[in-house]
Structure to design on (175 residues):
């Protein structure tokens, strides 16, 4: 784990706190399902912004390229299996298997987040990310996966995410 950030580090705490906010899971999954967004890349971008560093399009592309194999060979297959078992009619043993796969999927996302967090550039900044900064960042991240996506549509879906990050930063006194 030498080149990874700690799995349970502040990046993971941030992601769990934001994802637990009202409306955020639905918004994240909508962006994922409609535009192919990687929610973990989104959380990394938001975490970096909460630290006062807005990732550039180049940063995002570089980071996404670094984890694409992980996402395609580990995260997506686990997600596919979990979703396929959701409608299973084979009873309790399959429900338990689905929960095991769900746990493995979450752990794979935690590892992905650690991979990405270790790549956040450390450029000094004391600027607070504004609503507009966060909105532009989310649009940039979504457009990494769906270049044709309409920024207005993205912004509407992303509103609960933006509000959660702003509220958390206010509560924690982050820039």
């Amino acid at each position: 784990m030498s080149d990874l950030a700690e799995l349970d580090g502040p990046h993971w705490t941030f992601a769990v706190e934001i994802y637990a906010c009202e409306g955020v899971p639905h918004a994240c999954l909508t962006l994922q399902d409609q535009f192919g967004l990687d929610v973990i890349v989104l959380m990394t971008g938001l975490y970096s912004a909460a630290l006062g560093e807005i990732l550039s399009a180049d940063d995002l592309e570089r980071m996404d390229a670094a984890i694409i194999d992980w996402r395609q060979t580990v995260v997506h297959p686990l997600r596919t299996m979990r979703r396929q078992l959701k409608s299973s009619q084979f009873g309790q043993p399959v429900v338990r298997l689905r929960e095991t796969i769900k746990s493995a999927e979450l752990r794979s996302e935690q590892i992905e987040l650690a991979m990405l967090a270790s790549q956040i550039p450390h450029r000094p900044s004391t600027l607070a990310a504004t609503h507009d900064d966060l909105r532009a960042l989310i649009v940039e991240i979504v457009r990494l996966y769906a270049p044709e996506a309409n920024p207005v549509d993205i912004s509407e879906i992303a509103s609960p995410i933006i509000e959660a990050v702003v509220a958390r930063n206010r509560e924690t006194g982050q820039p």
Q: What stands out?
A: Helices lie at 10-19, 24-35, 39-50, 57-86, 92-117, 131-145, 151-172. The two ends are 29 Å apart (CA to CA). Residues 57-86 form the longest helix (30 residues).
